[in-house]
Amino acid sequence: MTAPLDFSNWVCPAPLRDYPAIVMGHGAGGKLSAELINHLFLPAFGGPRGPLTDAARIEIGGARLAISTDSFVVRPLFFPGGNIGELAVNGTINDIAMMGAQPLALTASFILEEGMPLDQLGVIAESMGRAAQQAGVTLIAGDTKVVDRGHGDGVFITTTGFGLIPAGVNIGPEQARPGDAIIVSGPIGLHGVAILSVREGIEFGAPVVSDTAALHSLVSAMLASGARIHTLRDPTRGGVAAALNEIAADAQIGIEIVERDVPVPPAVQAACELLGMDPLHIANEGKLIAFVARDDAERLLAAMRAHPLGRDATLIGYATADHPGVVVARTGIGGMRVVDTLVGEQLPRIC
């Protein structure tokens, strides 16, 4: 049989999801999250304005700025490798960096629950300040509110970040094109499994530490390489699967990855096998996915591997003109499977 595979009918359409109230899955980064944005928020705010990127682009006085707002409601507040404070700073910086921008400043808003221990809040605030200082970013404004006991999970943090997009840089999901090489900057799934191990008290044979990190310096090194980078995305909620599906939909391309080439740490693989999860759906907080012109893939890999945050960068697949909007993976036994986005939640409250 030589005819090309037709993936268009491999994913059965889900029945219309009719929820009269918000459920946790609406915040999990999967299909419910997309429906909430596309069918409630966008119409209410005046309709679509182009691809939904990690940050908005706006031009002011001839300068192109990237602006992103994000909220952090992770539970527990402290986890192996970090806490909600540095996660808020790093996560917002990364959204800006995925537009090719250099972060300039952040604002922060705190929703504090009555009874939150001040010593814990102090550690979180100090972590935020230290993460911002290490990234060369200034916290310039903020706000604080307190809610009744039992209504806040200790602290919720909302941040807004501002960054400057260099001249000549034009990065976005709609820029991905058939033939692009797809690179992931390192091992996936660490943040989600780190959160799960603490929350559920499960050990997976080896300690798992969150990968939370600010990626703007890695992005700067990637841009300096001269490689033709079309798209960048940090695979947070919904993991690599959600990120690839969003790019495939925005650019109307197909994506084919090789499952064995995706770097999955043994502890993450063990956790997923134990709990019946797919590593491609597990959240990350210090990794990025890059779509780059195929001829520039080796140049970009060399630049990434020379940076501490990209030393394990790996080529995992290519974009294709076939099956637009669909992501598929070649399995270890030579078959193909569709990599879809989850409808609801798999691992709640990871960021």
TrEMBL record:
Domain (PurM-like C-terminal): residue spans on this chain: 177-327
CDD domains with a match to the protein in the record: HypE
Lineage: Bacteria, Bacillati, Chloroflexota, Chloroflexia, Chloroflexales
GO biological process, alphabetically ordered: protein maturation
Residue ranges crossing the lipid bilayer per the database entry: none
Annotated ranges, domain PurM-like N-terminal: 54-165
Family that this chain belongs to: Belongs to the HypE family.
Identification of the protein by name: Hydrogenase expression/formation protein HypE
InterPro entries assigned: HypE, PurM-like_C_dom, PurM-like_C_sf, PurM-like_N, PurM-like_N_sf
